[in-house]
Amino acid sequence: MKAFVTGGTGFIGSSIVRELLKVDYEVCALVRKGADMRNLDGLEIELVQGDTTDVDSLRRAVQGCERVFHAAALYSFWVREPGLIERVNVEGTRNVLKVAKEADVERIVYTSSVAALAVPEGKEPVTEETPVDPGKIVGDYKKSKYRAEQVALTYARSGLPVVLVNPSFPVGPRDIKPTPTGQTILDFLNNRIPAYVETGMNVVDVEDVALGHLLAAEKGRIGERYILGGEDMTMGELLGLLSEITGIPAPRVKIPYYPILGLSYLNAAFCKITGATPRMTPDTIHMSCHYMYYDPGKAIRELGLPQNSAKGALRKAVDWFHDNGYVRTAPS
Q1: Of 70, 72, 73, 65, which Cα lies nearest the Cα of 45?
Q2: Which residue(s) pair with 212 in the sheet?
Q3: Contact call for residues 218 and 253 (beta carbons, < 8 A)
Q4: What gap in Å lies between CA 61 and CA 47, rounded to an integer?
Q5: How many CB atoms lie within 10 A of CB 48?
Q6: CB atoms closer than 10 angstroms to residue 50
Q7: Hey, how many other C-beta atoms are within 10 angstroms of the C-beta on 131?
Q8: Is the dihedral of CA 10, 89, 117, 181 positive or negative?
Q9: Residue 18 CB neighbour total at 10 angstroms
């Protein structure tokens, strides 16, 4: 069987490619011109140059493929080019589903995000069925993932065999950019977190997320969403696990919300002037008000989603960052 993967050079996408190869899929990956190819080095796969905004490149890549895994997305809370997130995340998704429909593929798995789900209230985990208030979704990235998910659901209602998966906060190897979650780990390793804002997140092994995509292709119900999640934990607990793994002391100082929100606006304004990338943005600080807890029970029951430990996933991330030269300080 042959699969087409978008976003194959990325964190989740490259793990999907590896899981597909383990079970003897032929893989065709879409790669952007000038993309960092390290995550695909040495893999026996077909490469097609293009991107999700180029419909002709998508048509070339999908030919002969029975399954499509659409993992490409712009995952960033700071983008200088107006409209870029919308073009990549929303219109790009529409383009992929359009060509998949034309090619009559048998199954499409769309990588959505927990960002498209309801904003958690308190510490009660969100499920796929928790009602979503679009007005409470903060930031261009999260809004784009919500709109892209609506595109995918509309295609599913029209008969396209689409299954949606919503990864939470994956960690593990090959986080080359890194993602915002990976940047937190890297900042800890480089002693750049003297204090923190208390919040909550759901941490999942990126390799569990990748396998969850294959399970969704095999067992997922068309038009259904599945949270690919792991363990809920506070930021303090996350930093504590990193301390256990590395021997680096965890910060003890918690910063109150409102002072750090004010600093985030100043930081964002400064970066707009200088062209630098902010360490924090108002959107990320607004989101920190919520404990981003999610319930992966549906994916565990219906798909058989594995639940490897968050500590093990963090250890793999730490080792990968050290082994690939991202860490400036020697391991303790």
Answers
A1: 65
A2: none
A3: no
A4: 8
A5: 16
A6: 19
A7: 7
A8: positive
A9: 20
Tokens standing for 21?
A: 């190869």
For the chain, percent helix, then strand, then coil, each to nearest 5? 45, 15, 40
Give dist(CA 319, CA 123) in Å, integer. 31
Length of the chain: 332
Q: Which two tokens stand for residue 135?
A: 């007005």
CA distance 297 to 277: 37
pLDDT of residue 74: 75
pLDDT for the residue numbered 283: 61
Q: Are 106 and 159 in contact (CB under 8 A)?
A: no
Angle at 46 between CA 45 and CA 48, to 5 degrees: 140
Q: What is the CA radius of gyration of the chain?
A: 19
Q: Which helix (H) or strand (E) holds 210?
A: helix 206-219
Closest by alpha carbon to 255, among 264, 245, 244, 242?
Answer: 264
**182 neighbors 74 (Cβ within 8 angstroms):** no
Phi/psi of residue 111, each to 5°?
-85, 95
Domains along the sequence of the chain with CATH: 2-174+204-232+294-309 (3.40.50.720)
Tell me what pLDDT residue 332 has. Answer: 44
Q: Distance between CA 11 and CA 172 in Å, rounded?
A: 9
Nearby residues of 235 by Cβ (< 8 Å), 6 or more positions away:
196, 197, 198, 199, 200, 201
pLDDT at 135: 86
Q: Which mean pLDDT values do the consecutive 10-residue runs of the chain (332 residues) have?
A: 97 98 98 95 97 96 97 71 83 98 98 94 94 86 94 98 98 94 94 90 98 98 98 97 97 75 62 64 63 96 98 98 88 45
90 contact partners, CB below 8 Å, separation of at least 6: 144, 147, 148, 151
Whether this model's pTM surpasses 0.85: yes
> Residue type at 294?
Y
